[in-house]
Give the backbone structure.
Amino acid sequence: MRPNIVLFGDSITQQSFRSGGWGASLADTYSRKDSTKPPVATTIFFGANDAALPGRNSERQHVPIEEYKENLRKIVNHLKECSPMMLIVLITPPPIDEEGRMEYARATYGEKAKTLPERTNEVAGAYARGCVELAGELGLRSVNLWSKMQEADGWQKKYLSDGLHLTPEGNEVVFQEVVRVFNEAWLNAADMPFDFPHHSEIDWKNPEKSFQQKCL
C-alpha cells in the first residue's frame, strides 16, 4: 500500500505543489514506496496568516496567538483520534521580510495600502515559539522554519518571494527540514521498499510471476 502523507496548511502549502515546491519534492521522494500504515504522516503548517496584525491590510486573517495554539491542538487531537500511529509534524510560520511585504502592499492596494506592514517578523516569531512550545507539550516533532531560515545571510530575498511566500530556495529549506524530521522518526524513504517490482526485476516472458511474488 502506498503511504499517504497529508499536508495541512494555507497558501504556502498550496503553492508547494508548483514546480520546485516542497510538497512536490516530498511526493517525488516517497513515490512508489510501500507502507502498511495509511496515512503515515501529516504536516500542519499554519500561523503565517494568523500572525497578521489588527488594524492593517490583512487584519481579517488575524487570529490571537492563544486561539491559534488551541486550534492547532484541536487539529492534532482529531488526527490522533483518526490514526493514533500517525506521525504528526508541526511547522512554524516562516520569518517575515517587512520591506518585502510593504512592496507587495503598495503593488496590490496602491494608495489604499497602509503605511505599516501587515505582518512583522517579531510577531511571526511569537507565533513560531507558540507552535514549537505546543509541539513539545503534545510530544510531537516540529520544524522551526522561522529560526532556520534566518540562519542564512540575505534570507529575506533568498527565501521569500514577496516577504511571506517562498522562493524555490525557500521551498527547498522546508523540504529538507521535513525530510530530516521524517528520517529522525521512522519514515525514511531510503529504507522503504517499492510497492511494485522495479522494471529490471520483472521477467518479461512471465510478468505475472513477478507481481504475484510481490503480492505474497
